[in-house]
Design a protein that fits this description.
By secondary structure, the chain is an alpha/beta fold. It is built from 9 helices and 14 strands. The longest helix is centred in the middle third of the chain and has 14 residues.
Length: about 325
């Protein structure tokens, strides 16, 4: 159990870890350092908002599962995860993949991938007050007087509407289930949080041509559709904070009167020498957000390849000591 902190609840929020032990930089060492740091800060709970892996590889899910187990985090009380697009479809890893990626996405069994994700982290879903037994999302759990709900914003691949497998939408079934569970459980909790992968940020126009082109591409390939009904639902139920990732930025912002927190730059932000960790500090029904920045020059480590991990300890991790 974490040590006592000054708040009634302290939640660490990270996202877009993109573990990939097959290619150049796996981010394995960075993830270990992040988890150690979070525990040193006496966090009660960790929320990870998608893209835990970069290429949806079975071995990477196994490594993460063992890593979380080694840190004593594989439980519903200590960890919550939602799925990201990379956890289902993977991503482009080489120049050759640009041409083959659409075919790979079309061949992906979407439902099977969602089930596999929840199976790998099944303990974190074990004590939910609500969980969809067929689609696995949304889920809801109560931590003290905090209602934490998780959504799946990833949609199946489509050449027309989801050509890069990175657009998103909350299905009508999930939307209705979320509305019902908020009706049922909101009165028992002072604070209400929502976890989702896709972002709600509004890109500001840039005067430079190159940035404008990039932003246009970004806007069309990373957007969350039908946000209006979500804004209305969040407002109706007085959601205190929506935590997400997807867009590689770490910041707090407001949209339509709703408070959002992005952890997309936990590892892969604009400054590659910086790690960002969000902390959501809850006292009564007030939320204070701190974003801790760790300079990567103090944590430079050799990239961990799968062969290195297997040679080191056969994927068996010791318990961390502080």
């Amino acid at each position: 159990m974490p040590q006592k902190n000054e708040y009634s609840m302290k939640i660490a929020h990270i996202s877009d870890l993109h573990l990939n032990t097959f290619y150049s930089n796996s981010y394995f060492n960075e993830i270990k350092i992040i988890l150690k740091y979070i525990l040193s800060q006496k966090a009660d709970h960790i929320a990870i908002t998608g893209d835990l892996t970069d290429n949806a590889a079975e071995r990477d899910f196994e490594i993460l599962r063992n890593l979380f187990n080694g840190f004593g985090l594989m439980s519903s009380e200590r960890l919550s995860v939602v799925i990201g697009n990379h956890d289902i479809f993977g991503g482009v890893q080489t120049a050759e993949d640009i041409l083959s990626f659409p075919g790979k996405c079309m061949d992906t069994d979407y439902s099977a991938k969602v089930k596999r994700f929840t199976d790998y982290f099944r303990e974190t879903f074990s004590k939910c007050v609500f969980k969809n037994d067929e689609s696995y999302f949304p889920f809801a759990k109560i931590l003290d007087d905090v209602l934490l709900t998780g959504l799946n914003s990833i949609i199946p691949y489509s050449k027309l509407t989801n050509p890069f497998a990175s657009n998103g939408e909350i299905s009508l079934d999930q939307f209705n289930s979320l509305n019902s569970l908020l009706d049922d459980f909101s009165e028992f909790c002072k604070t209400k949080l929502v976890l989702v992968h896709h972002h709600f940020e509004k890109f500001k126009p840039d005067s430079t041509r190159s940035n404008s082109l990039f932003q246009n591409i970004e806007k069309q390939t990373m957007k969350l559709r039908k946000k209006k009904r979500l804004y209305e639902l969040f407002d109706k139920h007085k959601i205190d904070l929506v935590l997400h990732g997807h867009y590689h930025n770490s910041a707090e912002y407001m949209r339509k009167g709703i408070r959002f927190l992005n952890a997309g730059a936990t590892i892969k932000g604009r400054n590659l020498n910086e790690i960002n960790i969000n902390f959501v500090n809850i006292e009564e029904n007030k939320i204070k957000i701190d974003i801790h920045k760790l300079e990567n020059n103090t944590i430079k480590v050799k990239p961990a390849f799968l062969s290195d991990l297997l040679a080191q300890n056969e994927i068996k991790w010791p318990q961390p000591k502080f």
